[in-house]
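User: I'm putting together notes for a lab meeting next week and I want to include a structural view of one of the chains we've been expressing. I don't have a solved structure, so I'd like a prediction I can at least talk through. The sequence is below, exactly as it appears in our construct file.
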Amino acid sequence: MKKIGCVVCVLFLCLITGCQKTPDEVKKRMEQYGSHSKVEIQDGHYIKPSKVTTSQKEALQTKTQNLILPEEIHLGEWDKVYELSLHYMEDFAEKREEIAKLFTGQDIAWEYEANAESLVKDDDFYIYDNGEDCVLCTSDNGFASMNCGSVYQYTYHSEEGNGEYTLFDRNDEKALEQTLWNGKDASTVQAEAAYMEQWMKEYWAGYEQPDFTYKVKNGMVYKDGGLELLSMTIQRYYEGVPFTSNGSEMAEDRKGKSYMARTDAGIHVGLTKKNKFEKFSNLTGGLLVKDAVEIDKVIDLATAIKLVEQELSGFKKLEVLDIVVQYDMFPKYQYKAPKGEKKEDCYGKGVKVFARPVYSFVLSKDIGNIDKPDYTINESEWYGYIDVDMQDGTIYCDLQDVHYEGEDYGTAD
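Assistant: Thanks for the context. Below is the predicted structure for the 413-residue chain, given as structure tokens.
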């Protein structure tokens, strides 16, 4: 039981989702490019990044056969985008005493774990488990996890329940007004989201990038017996643009060797009382920006929509819930090494990560019934995404692996 709390948090991004049959022509095209396709833009229209948000209404009038576009989208408030070079932290575990005080207000007895059973095998890894109601973990690469109190009891000691859950995102005003808890702990989703954003700014940004901002992306209110849990996903922002929290993606090189192609930067928290979180995990670790190169022109949204239309030719007609601008993240690490050299872990300390801006098309997914949902939002389970690189039109998607909601169209099975 000792290591489970930490390991589950890190392995969360590797969950496998259900499948559906894929049209032969789409399947054939996917076999050619894997999970991403670089498309030649013949009639591409490039604009200044600052013009993207002002042209969105016109772009949403684009006629489509394979997409049901929303009436309103949320591209954010920004006027610049960058090619970013980042890296994971290298000595974060040295701050473990501070982290313990930050999370619990107490001094604790950390235990060193050599080659811990996590995805960060070569980092110094520390764990605290009192065996009753609290597990903390931290690692050199900036990884930090807390699982205490009611969340701990629910995770390790409760039977699978059939509680009720409701999902929300930060643009759902009605859901944000939902009342939580009772008596002196009574609050709202919106108030608790604001509390966590302020807490991240005051207490966490200093450990990462001081100019990062943090905003709640989405969440879940889950009620099961005496438990009422507010679970939220928080995104890091760099100058107004968030880093992806959509999940990670494995790929294979030409020799069939697997590697992590895209990674994730979500932060998950869980609250069971007003202004008190008992669950925290930054999943893959802490990030620092090394270099930022401003991009002077990007593909306009209408062109991105047409590229997705082209890619979905012959597939189901899919409903797009939203279109957002975000940074997709690509780790650069030595996943295979020449003889005598050491392989690197994709989340290892000091590993480089490159980030590029994309238009991310958020898709509705048939998630079915979940008896006992995790205490975090699993992006790859709740939603689907098609991402279009804003510079060169490369498309990233997982249509061959998941079941999406949408109208039957064309030759879809």
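A couple of points you could mention at the meeting. Confidence is low (pLDDT under 50) at residues 1-34, 367-372, 401-413. The CA atoms of residues 168 and 175 lie 6 Å apart.

User: Perfect, that's what I needed.
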